[in-house]
Structures are given as structure tokens and as C-alpha cells.
Design brief:
The chain is mostly helical and 83 residues long. It has helices spanning 6-29, 31-34, 43-54, 57-66, 68-73. It has one domain (6-73).
Length: 83
């Protein structure tokens, strides 16, 4: 079996990460998803989806702190804390 050079592995990894980011953004651009952004009932769920797809854990933690009752209403529990 032929092995990949470190350079080709980095190129593949970079291309794969770029592909994943593009696919995530495509999901947010789907008409059925993007219309949620301005929907009075579902705009916060759109924001949560956007956090999951495009941001980091700290953004979710901030969202969770500001919207804990919303998350509980959907059966989404608080993130476990260490310590």
C-alpha cells in the first residue's frame, strides 16, 4: 500500500475542512432553513443551528446562558460542567 507524504496529507486535510465548512454554510442558505432566521417562533432555533455549524463552544455556552428556558422547553439540557 502506498503511503501519503506529509504534504499531501495536509493538502487533503485542508481541502476536507474547506469542504465541510462549505457544506455547513450551504445548509444555512437552504430556503427552508434560512426563512427560520426571521420567523418569530423559530428564530432562536436558527441562531442555535448557526452556532452549531459556524461557531465554537464558547458561543454555545453564551447562548445557553442567555436562553436556558428556551433550551429546556425543547428538552435540551444544560451542558455538564467540570469541577
Amino acid at each position: 500500500m502506498e503511503s501519503c507524504s506529509p504534504r499531501s496529507e495536509r493538502t487533503f486535510s485542508s481541502n476536507f475542512q474547506s469542504f465541510k465548512r462549505k457544506q455547513k454554510c450551504d445548509l444555512l442558505n437552504m430556503p427552508s432553513i434560512s426563512q427560520l432566521e426571521n420567523d418569530a417562533k423559530y428564530s432562536m432555533l436558527y441562531q442555535l443551528l448557526k452556532i452549531f455549524l459556524t461557531q465554537r463552544l464558547d458561543a454555545y455556552v453564551d447562548f445557553e446562558a442567555a436562553n436556558s428556558s428556551l433550551l429546556k422547553s425543547y428538552g435540551i439540557g444544560a451542558m455538564p460542567r467540570n469541577g
